[in-house]
Amino acid sequence: MITQLAGNGRVLLTVNENGEWNDLFYPYPGEFQHLREMRIGLYEPSERRFAWLRTGNGFLNQQGPTGVENSPASRWTGYGLKIGVQDFVHPNHDLIVRTIRVSSEQPRQLRLFAYHALQIAESMYQDTAYVDTSISALIHYKRGFYFEFFSEPTFDHAVCGEHTLKGLQGTYVDAEDGSLDGRQVAHGAADSVMQWDLNLKANEESVLRLFAAIGTSPQAVHKVREYVRAGGASRFEREASAFWQAWATRRVPKLPAGLSDRVRELYRTSVLVMRHAVGTNGSIIASPDTRSLVIGGDTYNYCWWRDGGYVAKAMDEAGLYENAQRFFEFARKCQQADGSFFHRHFPDGEYGSTWHPPPFLQIDQTATVLSALWHHFKRGADPDVLLDFWPMVKGAANFLTEFRDPVTGLPAASFDLWEERFAIHTYSTAAVIHGLERAARIAHELGKDPTRWRLASQEIHRAALAQLWDEEKRRFVRSLSPRDDRLDASVLLALKLGLLEPNDPRMRTAVDGIEARLWSSRVGGVARFENDQYYGRENPWVICTLWLAEVRLMLGDRERCRELIEWAAQHATPTNLLPEQIDVGSGEPRSATPLTWSHSTFVDVVHKFQRSTEPNAADAE
């Protein structure tokens, strides 16, 4: 499972519980995942003992939050050794610095090995790996992707080999007798091992820095290597650490009284997770986690417009205005000719995989982009932003206005936000009402006529309250055509968007009913909907619980909101990552971890809680 991550908008590195690299994305977060495996091993010649640096191999590992340095770190102890491994992604060079610090109470000789197996462009075949002794570097490449490994001090030996095919396990086996015998070059399912000979003095730390320069040509990675060697190896670690410290400390607000230090720590991590999820081109991935490949046959490494819109809102709240701006530029490029947005996209903007039939649509996603853009304008107060995106707004709003069911007057049927059911949904309807009203505000701000979109929003709103509210049961139905009466936490999000006014007695009735039925008595938190079976029966979701926090705040219950914020913080991982959901039995994280939407919702609710103490606080939506 991912426990830590670091990135720069082009390179995204994730680390697992063994302190090993888990995923390596380039040239955008979520695309492509180039890593098959990387591991570190130690051989002690005097004992003829070899062990990979993993829990259970005689070593114990400690990990904590990356903190303001934004650098994944593991601290290992075993066999009388202390080993620190820390990873840095440089903010403006496509460069990873892996710093390894080894100390011993007694003098001893060790050999340290680093094994690399890549799957360049997400295929582990047709790769080449070679050692270039003239520049003391090891290079892996395929097509337009190059990965150059070098170190300070320079490695003592390096070899290449193969894995998987021909019955081969991998060149890591070559290291396990403490002596490398492989080749200088290999192709196909290529891998490699580097070796350093360490002479440890008693109680003195030996420092080794392994670098990985990433680029689209041999010249690009060679240039980075030369730059590092000319500037001094430790400089690039210091630069990365100093930049991220400054970046993080400027984005942690002074939290109001009553919120714990854990909330503050989680807020800081959440802002970093959002920053790492957005590419330099503006794409925002739902999660870097790839484990769902095993269960679902696909990953969360896509840009959904609903997730992206809500993340962009939270980025604006947290001061990541330029990152949010890039998201809207990405959306403009990906918008369909009819004004709608396709189900999901790869991070480079191409159509993502889908299980929806044509027209591949979740109507709330198109609406969410409009709502997020208005929020973006409010945070920046620059009419030029709205002018630049006016064609996108006009196309999306006209589509929403026309995408109507002729019988009900509600938005026509599409898939719900949970991507499971085709119907006319309460949440999707609320999102369209909100999106059209925000589009009307944008039109008014630019001196355009907002009448058509505002009237459409009002018509849909009246139809929603007339047809989606069940007066007998005193709650909103989940959907129509076909009718589904199950309680669904997405109604909380619909209420957050203004489907009802807070002083409407139906608001409290609806919220109370959802909390009473979907709250987990075992671990706390709110499930998605009645009888949800995704990764377990009615597991609580972080976003659903935080939606409850916000609507409770809207109803004036600040204390309940605070309790729910603290619940989210308590159910983060030890390294402060928020999953998609919590196992209802064990309380452990389930499904994608981290989920960007979980972190962005946490940031958003913390800001709402903070503003609730301020007189005349502006409407954040």
In which range does the helix fraction lie? 25-40%
Number of separate domains: 2
Shape, principal axes of CA atoms:
elongated
Identify the CATH class of the largest domain.
Mainly Alpha
Number of strands: 29
Question: Would you kindly provide a written description of the structure presented here, covering whatever features stand out?
Answer:
- The chain is an alpha+beta fold and 621 residues long.
- The chain folds into two domains: 37-249, Beta-galactosidase, Chain A, domain 5, CATH 2.70.98; 261-611, Glycosyltransferase (Alpha/alpha barrel).
- The chain contains 17 helices and 29 strands.
- The strands form eight sheets. The chain has a nine-stranded antiparallel sheet. The protein has a five-stranded antiparallel sheet with strand order 6-5-11-17-15. It has a four-stranded antiparallel sheet with strand order 1-2-3-4.
What is the gist of this entry?
With 621 residues, the chain is of the alpha+beta class. It is built from 17 helices and 29 strands.
Labels describing this entry:
29 strands; Beta-galactosidase, Chain A, domain 5; alpha+beta; 2 domains; elongated; five-stranded antiparallel β-sheet; 621 residues; Glycosyltransferase
Would you spell out the secondary-structure blueprint of this structure?
Blueprint: E1 2-7, E2 12-16, E3 21-28, E4 31-33, E5 35-44, E6 49-52, E7 60-63, E8 73-78, E9 81-89, E10 95-104, E11 108-118, E12 127-132, E13 137-142, E14 145-152, E15 157-162, H1 172-175, E16 185-188, E17 190-200, E18 206-215, H2 218-231, H3 233-249, H4 261-277, H5 292-296, E19 303-304, H6 305-318, H7 321-334, E20 344-345, H8 363-380, H9 383-388, H10 390-402, E21 414-415, E22 422-425, H11 426-445, H12 451-467, E23 469-470, E24 475-476, E25 479-480, H13 490-496, H14 505-518, E26 526-527, E27 540-541, H15 542-554, H16 558-570, E28 581-582, E29 589-590, H17 596-611
Antiparallel strand pairs: 1-2, 2-3, 3-4, 5-6, 5-11, 7-8, 8-9, 9-10, 10-18, 11-17, 12-13, 12-16, 13-14, 14-18, 15-17, 19-20, 21-22, 22-25, 23-24, 26-27, 28-29
Helix pairs in contact: 4-17, 6-7, 6-8, 6-17, 7-8, 8-10, 8-11, 10-11, 11-12, 11-13, 13-15, 15-16, 15-17, 16-17
